Write the structure tokens for this entry.
Amino acid sequence: MSEGDESVRRRYRFAEWALTAVPTMAVRHFGKCLMCGQRSADTAEPDEAQVWCLKHAGLTHHSGYELSAFQYFNATMTDPKAEQRVT
Ligand SMILES: [Zn+2]
């Protein structure tokens, strides 16, 4: 971690932040082949990511896969006055 990151963290040390999942953005899933690096398009349906892996295995005989999920979050300061106290 660079020193720049450290100074940002110090500045917000007393600030309270909260992460909130973006309500309109569902958890997304995708499959990735560990042998050739190809990955599926991300989808809201975990089964579709697994089906992509099975189809890829059928076409290529590649046998190593990674299934991943990700979600979008917003970070909001729960106590805006906290930042003023620190600076
Ligand atoms: Zn592959």
